[in-house]
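Bench log, entry 3. Co-assembly request; chain sequences pasted below exactly as received.
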Amino acid sequence: MAKQRVKFTFEQALIKEPVIWRLGREFDVVTNIRRADVTEDRGWVVLELEGEPTEIERGVRWVQEQGVRVDPVPGDIVEG
Amino acid sequence: MSVLSSSAGSFAKNLRCKECGRVYPLEPAHVCEFCFGPLEVFYDYEALSRVLTRRRIESGPPTMWRYADLLPCRAETAVDIGTGFTPLLRAPNLGRALGLDRLYVKNDCQNPTWSFKDRVVSVATSVAREFEFDTLACASTGNLANSVSAHAARAGLKACVFIPADLEQGKIVGSAVYGPTLVAVEGSYDDVNRLCSELGDRYPWAFVNINVRPYYAEGSKTLGYEVCEQLGWRAPDHCIVPLASGSLFTKIYKGIKELAWLGLVEWNATRMSGAQAAGCSPIFEAWQRQSYNIRPQKPNTIAKSLAIGNPADGYNALQVLAQTSGAAAAVTDDEIVEGIKLLAETEGIFAETAGGVVVAGLRRLVQEGHVSPDELVVAFITGAGLKTQEAVAPALAPALTIRPTIDSFEEALASAYGGPVGKAVLPPGRSGALAGRRS
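Structure output for the full assembly:
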């Protein structure tokens, strides 16, 4: 089992979609929300994903396909 | 592993979560286990205030390590390749061009690998050694890679540096020469980010901006300390800083605040303003919306050293902007090139693109009334222009091309600048023209 910390950023159109619920239901991934901020026009959620590495990878790819931006928790790692 | 709290001479006390305030021991950690918020080094300020004096600092080495008491590692084991205490220059010509009476330029081009990154990497490398890591790592497109490679060489550590596979050859040399393991990663910018984040969890290395990031970031405070000391122990009225992750911006402010808390300078309510490239301006964009919610962007600018689409400290930078009544500006690539040229032609300093962003951003902030002509302003120039020559090369060419004869030279001169052949006068140059305009 592996754990991955990620930040999901939702555009306005996706705020009402139960993306995290579906991630946990359709993939063998446990989702554990640690911090979130949702406003009228945008939302972000910092959470931990737990599961087999390949399943987490599949789940994250599916989340991205829904239009959600997925980033590492500390922000961009690549610096100038 | 050893812990820093046992280090004699360091006043670092613990790590604290910037979001929920939870306290952690001084270990290689960067996020709060509870809320995943970023961690920051906290010091024993009471003990510091008992020992730290201007004289103690002034008797230290002419490098950033004169401020070792305010850094999270021991001075005697610091990995110092001569970083810091770079010139703070009065910039009358640039000030005249921008309409500012008291403008200073903090020239951090003069660090060992020619950028301010030496400050943060010097601390990260020192801490990595104290934590007994044997490998230093980072992911970078330029300045950070150069600095990590150089410091690892000096410290006798192994280095693993990840770069995008399509990075220009010229940028690879500045790291490769120090002998790190350079790994070119194929894929998008986001792919490189994700990979490095996962590698940071998997390998027992000191990833300078991941697991030792809280310590690494502290190195930027030394810019704030130096500017105050170089102004005769006075805090500036207004700082203009390039914004990338937002860390440099917040740490310069932290440095100025710490000196005030410790009674080494008078509190001056320094205003903090920032500049970004329009092609990657998530902090500016949020500031403009008066929101603390950063919208990540895909970078598209010549200012590669500032091209961070999802800034780690963007939220904190927005807080500092608000707390200090600062302002933000975003400038186009053309304005960046013009900013580089203006600084070079007026003050003789050749900056990389981030410096162009600062100069062009400052011009914009003055025009919009965010900076007053009588404020004591410090513009932070964080990297040298030889690193990003390609940004300005198309705009620069020899003014005249001649045959190797005096006649040819004098004819070309007369043709370009007027006047009879043999008596033509060279144009005054930008600062000369500015001086003439004033008189």
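Chain B has 17 helices and 13 strands. Chain B has three domains: 88-115+218-393, 132-211, 400-438.
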